[in-house]
Amino acid sequence: MSASVSTNPALQSTITGYLARQRRWTALEIGFWVLALAAPLLMPGQMLLLNEIAILGLFALSLDLILGYAGIVSLGHAAFLGAGAYAAGLFALHVNADPLLGLVVGTVAATCLGFACGFLVRRGTDLTRLMVTLGIALLCFELANTFRGVTGGADGLQGISMGKVLGLFAFDIKGRTAYLYSLSVLFILYLVARRIMASPFGLSIRAIRDNRLRASASGVEINTRLVAIYTLAAALAGAAGALMAQTTQFVSLDVLEFHRSADLMLVLIIGGAGYLYGGILGAIVFKLMQDAIASLTPQYWQFWIGLFLVLFVLGGREILQVAGQRVRAQISRLFAGKDA
Amino acid sequence: MLTILFDGVAYGMLLFILASGLAVTLGLMNFVNLAHGAFAMAGGYVTVLLMQRLGWPFLATLPLAFLLPAVLGAALERTIYRPMYAKTHLDQVLFSIGLVFMAVAAVDYAMGSQQQLIRLPEALLGRFDVAGVGIGKYRSFVIILCGLIALSLQYVLAGTRFGARLRAAVDDQRVARGMGINVSGIFSLTFAVGSGLAGLGGALGADMLGLDPSFPLKFMIYFLIVVTVGGASSITGPFIAALMIGVVDVAGKYYLPEIGAFIIYVLMIVVLLVRPQGLFARAR
Hints:
B: 2 strands
């Protein structure tokens, strides 16, 4: 990836220094993951919700890679979630019930799909990409709907029973294993994404987002890099789908629905795109909000999502950003003694 | 065979009426309005309500199915759409998806989620034979009405002073503004007319396309296909695209019901890859 073109040494050391700083862990981040690990102790009755948050967080992390870093607008990310979920579900049903093997199968399936689709989103405007990604997701939905014999159609894949994780931990009804399993996968894949985005490759992806023409003039092969990042994002989404299939032991057409892709945009936008944690934070807010509103008016939950989106774009984002900056300033003041 | 072609043309004509407003929004303001179908749904429900609650005849409801969505469109354009024009496509998409979600849930709350049925007047029911080809009366009515609307749209665009201004604004907004053309005024009017036409299409299509709260989501992709495949800079492009899609979709669902729905999506993806500007548009 790092084809070292001869640059002047001062510049090179600036870049290396920048990337090294990107890789360094802050106290805030470590605290976040410790808190995530301790969450089952703090909220023992809410393990299923926590599991959903972890999976949605992974899914949103995947969108962040292409939207936040590469600047590719996508309305069809559910295609990869669905590919991963169906592949993992079918694998568990017909071949082997081992969760980790299934996870690999789901991820690989989505990766292949993502690689193929990557070639379709390389060119064109935002609008073209929106349409193409939306078209791909709709195609996948129709495929799953048509091949009822394989996918179970609207009834879904039923009767999936998963083996133990690593042969040791069985999935329990309270969702403890499920959450810890999903959280570990999320953490590992987050590490992978973090390492990749703090590499020269990740830097070049951001260069493409910021100025395509200039990036290509400085020798970045735009097309191959976009396909690569798109494939990586698809892999993460596939892993999220596989986790969803395994922990709920059920897959239906719902994983490919349009609202999955639209909600995902909202999740990422709530948390903020382009710094990897946005998707996870957004997933926490989104799921808690959904849980709260759904207990009041389960049927009309969509109305509130819609209202939120409209208000958000009309001016709520600025308010949130200012609030976020204040909170961040407060926190960094708290940690100032230890960090500096 | 010819019956299918005929049905496809009727379907395509409807799609054109539904999507023509979107073509203008996208071409003129470069605004991605995914909520266009909500106006069509509004028109459909106006007709349903007037017929069911007040007992109006079907034909008498059509003017209102045009007017009310048009007024609604004008009001929304003035208030919340206008700040969106300068934002990115991503923001516009989020915003209009939000509107769609709100419209879907609100209609579900007010009217219930069931499919709405409308009773067409006796005169439009049944079919007649022309040289052995069965032709539905209602479908011919739709084709004639939509054809007339398409012709008058074409006349307004190509033959009137307003049309000339509109085309100038689509071609180059800044220069048009510099020449003293009131671009935002033109836009408000076309947005309102586009919403009204969508409403009319929704009312006409209640019988052929069905009408329930998920209408805007179900048909969003069709409107977008019409506009992106046809290109957003003229009215003939979307017209031809709509007819093509109507015929292909009806024929595909009839002859190859297993894979009928794919054909449209595959067609769209291929067209977008080969001609990102649309089939009938000039590259800019």
